[in-house]
Amino acid sequence: MPLADAAAMGCPRRAPASPSTAHLPTAPVAAPVPREIGFVGLGNMGYNMAANLYAKTCADGGSRLTVYDTVPAARERFVAQHPAARAAATSADVLGAADVVVTMLPDGPALLALLRAAGDALRRDTLLLDCSTIDVAAVQAAVAFCADRGAHLVDAPVSGGVGGAQAGTLTFMVGAAASDGVLPRAAAVLAHMGQRILPCGARGAGQVAKICNNLVLGITMLAVSEATALGLNHGLTPQVLAGIMNVSSGRSWVTEMYHPVPGVQPGSAASRGYTGGFGAKLMAKDLRLACEAAAQVGMPLPLGEPTRHYFDDVVRDPEYASLDFSAVYRYMMQRPKQP
């Protein structure tokens, strides 16, 4: 049965979801684009973000982009494809020369190591925009380190994945209030890599928002995988079950846009052999960050904790460690059934 026929089975139709963000303040793009921009971290996300930043601010000579990555081949590839950009020999060269520096790093220790390596080379009034997903304690330590040197660090983690980074449609969750004087400077750069800039409050609030969002995402992916596996074991096809969910109360971003069963959505990571997209290791990391954040305030996570442990099991399996997080469905289906 095609997806469109699911409503004929008695499931109520409803309008496409359009969650309102009207209550969220958006950042004004009032400050001019800085002349000297730096970018540190040219992985799957960072490379595409830097490419958009280059195309929209530097290709015409308006600004100059300096990039750095710990892998020399990554920075060499970037400057080969973006000839007006410059590759720095060290991260300190970037932080010492740029007015605004964007960082996209794997974890909090990497950010703190970057700052310590720069040391006194970090110029007064330099603005660092950390788009990594890291722990709140690391953000606070990095903010203090920069403040001691007269610089500014703002957390601005992203949502949208590699596809959003390529298309320049990312959402930035910014650890700054709408009235924060540094926000226009941040927005002047972030606007060239995404579509939404959402001030979340104090420093670190952007990371909290991102961690909470990905906590929901991980739990939802596991729930959809579990429910789909149950339906298939009772004879339903994944197409029929997805169609029912998408016109019923089980509807979610996962069922509509990122279904974990190959073939349900032709463009999904699942339909590409669970390649690309958002890695299972990254989801396991974000769930760990959520559990750590909950522990800091003495809060149990009755769904988050078991979801974290399940994804930990997934990424411990060498077959799944490098796959997209939606591969949790395949992992589940390949587990031995109970007698």
UniProtKB/TrEMBL annotation:
Residues 1-27 are annotated as: Disordered. This is 3-hydroxyisobutyrate dehydrogenase. It is an enzyme of class 1 (oxidoreductase). Signal peptide: none annotated. The active site is at residue 210. Coiled coil: none annotated. It comes from the Eukaryota. Belongs to the HIBADH-related family. 3-hydroxyisobutyrate dehydrogenase subfamily. GO terms for cellular component: mitochondrion. Residues 36-200 form the 6-phosphogluconate dehydrogenase NADP-binding domain. It comes from Caulochytrium protostelioides.
